[in-house]
Structure formats: C-alpha cells, structure tokens
Amino acid sequence: MATINERLHVLASTTERADKGALTIQDLEEQKRKNTNVDYKMVTFSLAGKDYGIDIMKVKERAKASAFTYVPNTLPFVLGVYNLRGEIIPVIDLRLFFNIEVPPHEENELENMLIVTVGEQTYGVVVDSIDKVVGVQKSTIQPPHPLFGDINIKYIYGVVEAEKRLYILLDIEKIFGVQSADEEKKLQEEVKEQMKLRQEAAIEVAQQEQKRTAPKAPKFDEASKSESAKAQVQAEENKKKEVDLNFIADSLLNLKKFVLNAVNEEWARKRYAEWAEERGEKNTQLSSENDANAFLSTFYSPCSENWWSEEYAEAVKAALPNNAAKNIVVWNLGCGKGYESYSLACVLKQRYPGAHIRIYAHDVDLLSVSNAPLMTVPDNLANGWYAPYLSKTVSGDYTFSKEIKDMILFEYHNVVNSNNLPDIDVIFARDVISFIPETSQKVIFDEFSEKMKGNGIIIVGANEALSIPGWNAEPAGNITVYKK
Fold first, then answer.
1. Label partner for 350 (CA 20 to 30 A): which of 98, 131, 223, 483?
2. Contact 42, 169 (CB under 8 A)
3. Do residues 34 and 329 make contact, with C-beta atoms less than 8 angstroms apart?
4. pLDDT tens for residues 125-156?
5. Torsion of CA 301, 305, 309, 312, to 10 degrees
C-alpha cells in the first residue's frame, strides 16, 4: 500500500500536469495500473516469438546448459537427463513438446532452461529465451481460448495482458500430468457422492432384508420380537460398516489417490473385514500415509514394482493367447521404473519367438520413464530365467539385450489423454486403473474397446475387475484375462 506522502506526491504531480494541460486518460490509466495490488507473479519467456508465462511459485531457478545425457527409446521432446548440482533431473524441450519449430543452433550451444518443481519432482524445461518476472492482478487473467498460441488449450491456464504484451500462461502441472487442486477437489467430491449413494443403497437393502426375514408371528410373540431385534441390529451393523468404508475411501483418495469403486470393491470389502479384525472395530480409520500403505499392502499384484519370479513369468506366459501374427502390439499402462515392461518383453519373446513385438510403455512419472532405458540387472538374476535376454557391459554390469530393449518404447504419457496407438493385441494394466479418477476410467475403457483386436486380451491387477460391455472374464491359470 502507498504511504500518505506517496499519495500526496502523486496527487500533486497529476494536479501540476493537469494545470499544464498535459494529463490524459492514458496517464490516469497508467497511474491506476501502477497502484493496483499485484497478487500473481509469473516468469515470462518466449517460444517461436510468442510470450508465455509460468507461475513463479513453480519455478526454482533459471539455468543455461547443454550436452544433456541422452536417454534412448524416449519421445523426441525428452532431451535426456541433467546433473543439477548432484540431482539428476529429466529435461524436456517445451518447443518439441508443443510441436513448435526449434531454431537452428550449434550442437553444443547453451540452451535456456527453467528449473521447475511440480509436486516433489524437479524438471528442466528448455525454451527459446527467458525474459523476466512480471506481476499482475489474478482477476485480470482471462480464460484460455484456442486462438491464443499454437498449443493444446488443455495446457493453457489463461491469458493476461501486462506491460502492453499478451502472455499465455501455461499450466505446468497439466504438462507434467499432475492433477491440480481443483481437479483433486472435484475427484474427492465425486468419490464422496459415490460412497454416499452406496451407503444409502446398502441401508435400503438391509431394510428390505429385515422386512423379508421378519417373522409373521403375532405382534406380542416373544420369538418374533427377538428375530426382529436381531434383524435391526444387523441392519445397524451393515450401516456402520458402509459409513466406515466411506471414511476409508476418502482417506485412500486423499493419501494415495486410490479410487475405491466397482473395479476394486470386492477386494476393498474383504480387506476392510481383515483390517477391522487386525486393528479392532474402533480403530479402523486411516490417520496417516503409513496406515494407507498398510491397508493397500494386500492390493498389489505379484512382483509389483520388482523383478518377476520365474513362477509368475510362467503364469503370464500361460495366460497369453495363441497368436500367429507377424506383428504383435502391446500396451503397458503404468510401466513405472521398467521392471514390468522388461519382464513382459522377455515373456512375450518366449511366447511369440517369431513375431516382431512392440511394447508401448506409458507412465506419468517422467523421471522413471527417462531412466528406464538405462536399467541394469542385479547379478543374482543373471543365471535365472532372465539369462537368455541379458548381455554384459564393458563395466561388468548386466543389462538387457538390444533385441529386448528395441521392443520397448518408454513414453511419458498420461493414458487418460488421447492415445495414438495402432490396434492392440495385449493390454497389460496391473494395479493402474484403481489410481485413475472414475470419470477417466470410463474414457480408458472406451479406448480399450476401440483399440483392441478381436482376439486380444486385457490383464489387470490381481485385485481389480473390469465391467466393460461386450467383455468377459476368463480364468487362465492363476491370472484372469478379459476378452471380447
């Protein structure tokens, strides 16, 4: 806020200029703008001659760098990884991400890079040039419009005019696949509403069951009173369980982004019964992330985020269908650090030795996707079932053979967005769908139906179940597959 002296100085100045006949409407507007409170600051930069901005709260620093460490089998916009004072961070070229032409430059020329923080992850973002920090009033930011910029509107937070320039504000969280606070709030409201409806439905079922089983003996019959009381107690217990499960669902969503719905409901109810027995009926709520992790400990599929045992590899192999095609396309959703993708590649090579296999491995963890192609294999696995698919580097480390590596395309990609994939033979999506918002799950299911070949299969998590019209669950040994 301006002091009284500053206000008097401005007033005297404008009065003097008015006396001289020099005060204009533009002068008044400029003074008004300068005295407006700034409640939003952005770091501005340029891409292909246009002005852009990012919320300053997301920007850690600016840097100049080159010679990034190349990571094979990643999308073109991932330039590689960079050592930022001991921290290895992935680097993306925002121009390539938005399909904007990159101006020609020398091979080792320093790039302009913003170091941004999204959630707990740090990234390097390469742009044409970095300008300055600009402050505006948040209320002046206008909604995005497709005419502004050459990029997808979903990545634009808004547009604002400042210092006679129009800035396109980017939503850095959307670019890196992170849900905004508003999206998380909307998701929480959806889950609460869904659980409320389930609770009401469960109470209604319990009441109907109570009426159905109530003895039709005379009103004053003691046995009738006893049975009625038991039914009432049972109804109240069912109601309490639904309420408790509702709280569990809210906590899992808040702490782990786990969506309790029809995909995992059977497991959740069984797990809640176990949980209540372990903790006691009065101590079932999840008060911390450790509690949520403990509750979810029985949810994950065998060998999740780890190397596969030979037994599990054989189970997956037995579940794969007969397929004489020369080209086999596999979609691996939520590939994580790459354990699953490499293990799946080895199994597919065993099952279809003469086919050309392509695995599209997708995940929203850019660091994991960037590092996956560089993965090495522990020595203790070198003599096991992985052995035929490994080679030894000059440093003595074991890594996967070129043939296996060439099968996998690791991509930073949010699967709820459009997926430009060819027709698919196998969808491998273990333990992924339960961490996707319910409205987006429906989008993915439509994608499954559209992309899947007639003889294709879907494999989801051991404690997940699909309910897609036209698809049936079929047991294949220890694994359930879904077929059209």
1. 483
2. yes
3. no
4. 999 999 999 999 998 999 887 665 556 777 88
5. 30
